[in-house]
Amino acid sequence: MSTPVTDTPSKKRIDEVLRGNYDKKYRPNMHGPPVIVTASVLINSFYSSTDTGMDYTVTLFLRTRWVDPRLEYTDDKNQTLTLHSDGVNEVWVPPLYFPDEKSGQFHKLTTENVLLRIYPDGTVLHSARFTITLSCMMHLERYPMDEQTCNMEIES
């Protein structure tokens, strides 16, 4: 269960966690082993694919999870800290990108559709929603009886 950061104790806890030795420019374990980041993609909508542009457009949620020991904290209630839009910019996030991206946009209706949760053991969950158009090399030799397979790649 997660509690949004609206009450003073949670906001104070986040300030304590981020104001210590924390520097978002550096990845966790900077001089140690690599950070293991798990990622998942939930496709919310598949809008279109075009043979002329050789591309397709999707709205998706990209969720990533990793451990940042610098964000560990102790809490009697085992409370999860939740940061929304502005607060997310204060934490290191893996530099992921889509190499086949043609265009993309983050959803910002009312607020940015991005969320970051910090668990007491330093585990971080980041979720962002956006619409992206990706290129897809289509093979149209059997058109209109063809079938296409388009890959979605994420790199760091």
UniProtKB/TrEMBL annotation:
Q: How does it sit in the membrane?
A: Multi-pass membrane protein
Q: Which residues form the Neurotransmitter-gated ion-channel ligand-binding domain?
A: 13-156
Pfam short name (any one) = Neur_chan_LBD
Would you identify the family this protein belongs to, as annotated?
A: Belongs to the ligand-gated ion channel (TC 1.A.9) family.
- Ion transport listed as a keyword: yes
Name the source's superkingdom: Eukaryota
Q: Keywords on this record? A: Ion channel, Ion transport, Membrane, Transport
PANTHER family registered for this protein in UniProt: NEUROTRANSMITTER GATED ION CHANNEL
InterPro entries, per database record: Neur_chan_lig-bd, Neur_chan_lig-bd_sf, Neur_channel, Neurotransmitter_ion_chnl_CS
Protein name in UniProt? Glycine receptor subunit alpha-4-like
Q: What is its main location?
A: membrane
Q: Where is this protein localized, as stated in its record?
A: Membrane
